[in-house]
Amino acid sequence: MEDKIIIDDQKRKDIDELLERSVAEILPSKEAFKELLLSGKKIRFYIGTDATGSSLHLGHATNYIIFEKLRKLGHEAILLIGDFTARIGDPSDKNSARQQLSREDVQNNIKTWMKQLEPLINFKDEINPPVVKYNHDWLAKLNFEDLIGIASNFTVQRMLERDMFEKRLKEEKPIYVHEFFYPLMQGYDSVAMDVDMELCGNDQKFNALAGRTLQKKYNNKEKFVFITTLLVNPVTGEKMMSKSLGTGIFLDSSANDMFGKVMSQADENIYQLFVDCTFVPMDEIKIIKSKLDKGDINPKDLKMDLAYEIVKIYHGEEKAKEAKNYFVATFSKKEMPDEMPEIKPDTYDLISILIQSGLASSKSEARRVIDQGGVKINQEVVKDYNFTVPVGSVVQRGKINFIKIT
Q: Which of 54, 139, 192, 221 sits 20 to 30 Å CA-CA off 233?
């Protein structure tokens, strides 16, 4: 492919919009990066992800949306799977060491990722397809002499500047030596691929800057670091996409589940979710924000539009319409849906039905949700683990998940 990109009026507009949304920080500066993009020089950039789980959520999606926009501008885009670094365990934002994974664990997690990313990234583009790489290919080949050379570019003091390490020291919690290897290995990814830019979230800033140091040392090249905004509630400061808090909206969720979980987001999250998780143009989003700030529109109506836009990306327009109708029928009108999945369970006790239907993933989760009053049978809360569910009953978990027993 050609090394020069022709910058026409449309590409200038695309660059302006790209740099206007979902940007927390660009190092060394946003102005320098914009100048680089407008120059027409083709850059090589990457986004790296450790496959520590099988599902991606909307917080991850923000990065991939920007990834695809840059790729469409004509730049060389690398999707890096951290099949080696995931086995070390990234200490970012952790109060204790991550559990180390086997390579088999990582490979199993990767299997579903590409499918989840297909709505966001055109892997079949024949002109400028994204490149998928695995850092095991070069990190596994480093010997101890190589590692000493890499480590000699950093001080222990710099490593201990990381917030999570400082916190652990104060709390007298252990910091393992292997955790220091992580930023070194992620940093070396930039060297191995000889990139011009790394795209990451703010929690990866330290690791990305390690790559900037090593890229300058080994390849005598400046590396830009494009840091995206994290999805954080502006009032509480809590992450919007938290698995532990039960607020994660995962890309492999069903259309109905995804729609319902967007609707359950706090009103103050609406603006950022439009900016970071949809393809709605910024001009329209600014109008939405103005109406929100002035109180000229019901936030619930805006969330209906937001949920529709998000579901449309991952499931298509028809499924988005169906999910909206389903939500209106089951929540807004306080009714059960006319149609719902049916199962004929092996046994009719409540715990078994929750597990067999997929409404709970384990006996412990089933017991927990029952204790919390989150399970209804024919619209009545049931807290008896051993309750026998009659044939023809409707079992409900939460507000939008229904199963009919046959």
A: 54
What pTM was computed for the model? 0.78
Q: Is position 243 within any domain?
A: no
Average pLDDT over residues 37-61: 88
First to last CA, the chain: 59
Is 70 exceeded by the pLDDT of residue 1?
no
Are 53 and 118 part of one and the same domain?
Answer: yes
Q: What is the mean pLDDT of residues 345-361?
A: 84
Q: Are 142 and 188 in contact, with CB atoms under 8 Å apart? A: yes
Q: Which domain holds residue 376?
A: 342-405
Contact at 8 Å (CB) between 43 and 5?
A: no
Q: Cβ neighbours of residue 303 under 8 Å, at least 6 residues apart?
A: 262, 263, 265, 267, 270
Residue 177 identity: V
69-91 pLDDT, tens digit each: 999 999 999 999 988 887 776 55
Instruction: Give DSSP secondary structure letters for 238-286.
Output: -BSS-TTTT---BTTS-HHHHHHHHHTS-GGGHHHHHHHH----HHHHH
**Alpha-carbon gap, residue 84 to 222, rounded angstroms:** 25
| Residue 214 near residue 240, CB atoms below 8 Å | no
Burial of 393 (0-12, 13-18, 19+ CB in 10 A): middle
User: What is the spatial distance between Cα 303 and Cα 299, in angstroms, rounded to a whole number?
Assistant: 6
Handedness of CA 117, 118, 120, 123 (dihedral sign): positive
b/e sequence 312-349, b meaning 16+ C-beta within 10 Å = bbbbeeebbebbbebbebbeeeeebeeebeeeebeeee
Question: Which domain-ending residue is among 193, 228, 263?
Answer: 228
3-class DSSP assignment, residue 78: strand
Both 38 and 152 in one domain: the answer is yes
Same domain, 21 and 75: yes
| Pair 174, 94 in one domain | yes
* 75 plus 54 within the same structural domain: yes
Q: Which residues contact 230 (CB under 8 A, 6 or more apart)?
A: 24, 59, 201, 202, 203, 239
pLDDT tens-digit profile of 229-282? 999 989 888 888 865 455 678 898 899 989 988 988 889 999 999 999 999 999
185 shares its domain with 323: no
